[in-house]
Fold this sequence. Notes:
By secondary structure, the protein is an alpha+beta fold. It has helices at residues 10-15, 55-61, 64-80, 98-101; strands at 23-26, 30-34, 42-48, 91-94, 110-114. The chain has a single domain (10-114), classed as HIT family, subunit A (2-Layer Sandwich). Adenosine monophosphate (AMP) is lined by residues 10, 21, 33, 35-37, 45, 96, 102-105.
Amino acid sequence: MTPAYDDQNIFARILRGEIPCDKVAENDHALAFRDINPAAPVHVLVIPKGAYVSFDDFCARASEAELAGFLRLSGQVAEAEGVALKRGAGFRAITNAGEHGVQEVPHFHLHILGGRGMGPMLTRRD
Ligand code: AMP
């Protein structure tokens, strides 16, 4: 079951302007900012402005305008960061959900990672 949205999570506080972020881009429905602990030369987080816990929560409850706004901003970020296929060498977009996904911040976010080869998607554990 999706946990209740915690409005004290760090991304909710960024959205309310209570703590700063290194903003990359914004539209009516989404905000993009640099990850504080980057795992690659390009590491941007894109978050919806609405209160959604996870990817599946966002897919189920967001309006068409929120879905479109979020996805458009994500694509624009990849392009602006020079990693989109139009001009760049590509990127990885990932989202972690819940315990098995190892999600730390319970506000849906998409990681856009690039600027170097990302290696295999997962380490296989047999
Ligand atoms: P996840 O494990 O998918 O929930 O990832 C959470 C991400 O948020 C991590 O990559 C953190 O480095 C990043 N993070 C945590 N706090 C902040 C912050 N204040 N500003 C930017 N990124 C943050």
